[in-house]
Specification:
single chain; alpha/beta; 6-stranded mixed beta sheet; 4-stranded antiparallel beta sheet; 20 helices; about 10% strand
Length: about 600
């Protein structure tokens, strides 16, 4: 699937619309009380700040000509008090907006993570995990400033702009209109950069996603990289992806930086124009302006363009955030195809009968993996599934746990269609050990207990003893409290499998699924393990996938599968007597072992 590559740009499934920005606001709703308080404080701060130019006008036009030193000192005290009050309000505002922004980020990230927990295996099969991770971490983080300061600053700056225009009009209407003549120029520029910014940030987010996907893949495969001396080649690939990201960033960031300088230029031009016209009016003695009015007005001009600059920055932030929001909401909107049906009931305590009735399944449309599969395993029986690679063996056991939905037919447990019960109640009664023996960072005790969080330490130890893991665990520095790294890099492949096996056994499942459970265990350990398994499998319905046929000779029934069809079915002796596909497979493996021993 082309989508599942680190060097292929992702394409959005849906077009962006403004409703997604509105949708973001729902995460802000729980903090509306704090936001209102912040906005009120900022409005008070803005209103107080507007008084300083008026103080200055009064001093220039009245108190200085009168020589009223006491009044000038009082104005200085008032100005200092206003500045201190604004500083205190700003400190409170920073605290409140930080809490609001991080609270919203936490809520958004939690919803995204919760949804990822529910998405089916097919979602993770179709894309690199690094491209999923970048949405949960980087993209959400990139919204932080917008949510922390952008919304509050925009609302308060809009109100401040109204205050400023009011004070400017009160001082001089003509100068106010002259000051605002630069706004049409800014509006034309905003329209020009809008489309280019959104497209540019989409490209940039794609390149960031590609780079993150490759980094994640490289870290996971570092042992293979070093084993095959691929460091230089991998560095070349990294440099290419990093270069693409840098190029995309530089291409779009120029539009971000375009608005602020233009605002500054327009501000400077209008300031110069007003000074020129104001001085000419003063020379003419027309009485339209006074020196104090001109000085106060020039102060308001700087304040007038400051919120406009902030609004332009917010506009940039919104356009940037749009490219991230599209990806985040696309993930949140990804349908959970494997989910409880309306009215699904709790699965009763499982006895263990499992039946496939004419089951068809495909991962992709038109490519069948299972074709009209039929069989019935009775409670307590052990079924082994063998066949060539890609035949559909793992698919069968994945369907029993309902990791995927079947295309047609029925899958029954104790006569109950598994589609009619809740997934949680079904999986809680199963033990699954897959080919990938995943070990979490933490202690060995915690990793085994992952299969049953209510289990006691004694239960954990007993499970480890059953699968012959106890001895090697006790030989480690701190026994069951030994810390292991992510993916169990400190453990051998066989040790990881044994710990995973103990985890599955601890769940005390009624149905046990072992997918290549002994593939990394040495022959001596396997013999010991078979003794424990014989006791464990008794009374449980078990499905075992194994390439080493010696491990499944005692199974009640063996299914030989190829190209999605059950070609042969029976126990070991029956299938050997048929001298069919299973016989050929067994004899070829036996012959290979004989040559190896020879």
């Amino acid at each position: 699937m082309a989508r599942n590559k680190f060097d292929v740009d992702e394409s959005l499934e849906t077009k962006f619309d403004i409703n997604q920005v509105k949708r973001l606001l729902k995460y802000v709703t729980p903090y509306k009380g704090k936001m209102i308080l912040t906005i009120v404080l900022m409005l008070i701060s803005s209103a107080l700040g507007m008084l300083i130019p008026m103080f200055l006008k009064q001093v220039m036009d009245v108190y200085i000509p009168e020589g009223n030193i006491q009044a000038i000192l009082w104005m200085a005290v008032l100005t200092l008090a206003v500045i201190l009050a604004v500083s205190v309000i700003l400190r409170v505002k920073i605290t409140l907006t930080s809490r609001i922004g991080q609270g919203v980020i936490h809520s958004l990230r939690r919803e995204l993570f919760d949804h990822l927990q529910e998405l089916p295996f097919s979602y993770y099969d179709s894309r690199p995990h690094g491209k999923i991770q970048v949405r949960l971490v980087n993209y959400v983080n990139n919204l932080s400033d917008l949510l922390s300061n952008g919304i509050v600053n925009t609302i308060t700056d809009l109100c401040s702009l109204i205050f400023i225009i009011f004070f400017m009009l009160a001082l001089n209407v003509q100068l106010t209109l002259l000051c605002m003549c630069g706004l049409p120029v800014l509006a034309v520029l905003v329209i020009f950069v809008k489309k280019k910014q959104r497209t540019g940030w989409q490209i940039q987010s794609n390149k960031q996603s590609n780079l993150n996907a490759y980094i994640a893949e490289s870290i996971n495969g570092i042992r293979v990289t070093q084993a095959f001396v691929r460091e230089e080649r991998n560095t070349d690939i990294f440099n290419r992806l990093s270069g693409d990201y840098r190029k995309a960033w530089m291409s779009v960031i120029k539009y971000n930086f375009m608005l602020s300088p233009v605002v500054d230029v327009i501000s400077a031009v209008t300031m110069a124009l007003i000074y020129y016209i104001g001085v000419e009016w003063l020379k003419a003695g027309s009485g339209v302006v006074t020196v104090g009015t001109l000085v106060a007005f020039s102060s308001y001009i700087g304040r007038f363009w400051q919120p406009i600059n902030t609004l332009a920055s917010f506009y940039n932030s919104v356009l940037t955030a749009i490219s991230y929001l599209e990806r985040i909401f696309e993930t949140i909107d990804e349908p959970v195809t494997v989910k409880d049906r309306p009215g699904a009931k709790e699965m009763p305590p499982i006895k263990g009968d499992v039946e496939f009735k004419d089951v068809d399944f495909s991962y992709e449309d038109g490519v069948k993996i299972l074709n009209h599969v039929n069989f019935k395993a009775k409670a307590g029986e052990t079924y082994a599934i063998v066949g060539p690679t890609g035949a559909g063996k793992s698919t069968i056991v994945n369907l029993i746990s309902r990791f995927y939905n079947i295309d047609s037919g029925q899958l029954l447990i104790d006569g109950i269609d598994i589609n009619s019960v809740t997934i949680k109640s079904l999986r809680k009664q199963m033990g699954v050990m897959m080919q990938d023996s995943f070990i979490f960072s933490g202690t060995i005790m915690d990793n085994i207990r992952y299969g049953n969080m209510t289990a006691t330490d004694e239960d954990v130890v007993n499970a480890a003893k059953t699968v012959c893991a106890h001895d090697f665990i006790m030989e480690m520095d701190h026994g069951y409290q030994t810390e292991v790294n992510e993916r169990g890099s400190r453990l051998s492949a066989g040790q990881r499998q044994l710990i995973s096996f103990a985890r599955a056994l601890l769940a005390d499942p009624k149905i046990l699924i072992l997918d290549e459970a002994t593939s990394s265990i040495d022959t001596e350990t396997e013999i010991l393990l078979q003794e424990g398994l014989a006791r464990l499998l008794k009374g449980r319905t078990s499905f075992i996938i194994a390439h080493r046929l010696s491990t499944i000779k005692n199974a009640d029934c063996i299914l030989y599968i190829d190209k999605g069809n059950i070609l042969e079915k029976g126990n070991h002796e029956e299938l050997m007597a048929k001298k069919g596909e299973y016989y050929k497979l067994y004899m070829s493996q036996y012959s290979f072992l004989e040559k190896g021993n020879g």
